[in-house]
């Protein structure tokens, strides 16, 4: 049995002014929620927000170790930050990561700030 898509509304947003922007905004919000769903990333953002300018990843890992449950080793946190958390934060536009990946800086994202205030 086949179904006709003739009466279905196309998912294309080319012909509808303003619709591309809304979809992009919705996707951005979804991305931010995914990033903030992880407790370690929320702690990272809070630490970066409290500091001015770029922070060395190793210094971030040491500060994070003091706040994490179970006293994780800073060396392990550096690996976790570099390979998992910081790339996700950078991909979401929340942080800037230096070209050599040794320093990170929070980008002052208003939506992230508002959501973290609620948590």
UniProtKB/TrEMBL annotation:
<protein>
    <recommendedName>
        <fullName>DUF7344 domain-containing protein</fullName>
    </recommendedName>
</protein>
<dbReference type="InterPro" id="IPR036388">
    <property type="entry name" value="WH-like_DNA-bd_sf"/>
</dbReference>
<dbReference type="InterPro" id="IPR055768">
    <property type="entry name" value="DUF7344"/>
</dbReference>
<feature type="domain" description="DUF7344">
    <location>
        <begin position="33"/>
        <end position="105"/>
    </location>
</feature>
<dbReference type="InterPro" id="IPR036390">
    <property type="entry name" value="WH_DNA-bd_sf"/>
</dbReference>
<feature type="compositionally biased region" description="Basic and acidic residues">
    <location>
        <begin position="8"/>
        <end position="27"/>
    </location>
</feature>
<dbReference type="Pfam" id="PF24035">
    <property type="entry name" value="DUF7344"/>
</dbReference>
<feature type="region of interest" description="Disordered">
    <location>
        <begin position="1"/>
        <end position="27"/>
    </location>
</feature>
């Amino acid at each position: 049995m086949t179904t006709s898509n003739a009466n279905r509304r196309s998912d294309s947003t080319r012909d509808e002014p303003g619709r591309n922007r809304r979809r992009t905004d919705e996707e951005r919000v979804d991305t931010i929620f995914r990033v903030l769903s992880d407790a370690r990333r929320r702690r990272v953002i809070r630490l970066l927000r409290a500091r001015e300018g770029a922070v060395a990843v190793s210094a971030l890992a040491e500060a994070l170790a003091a706040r994490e449950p179970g006293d994780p080793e800073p060396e392990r946190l550096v690996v976790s930050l570099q390979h998992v958390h910081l790339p996700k934060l950078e991909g979401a536009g929340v942080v800037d990561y230096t070209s050599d990946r040794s320093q990170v800086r929070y980008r002052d994202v208003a939506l992230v700030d508002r959501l973290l205030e609620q948590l």
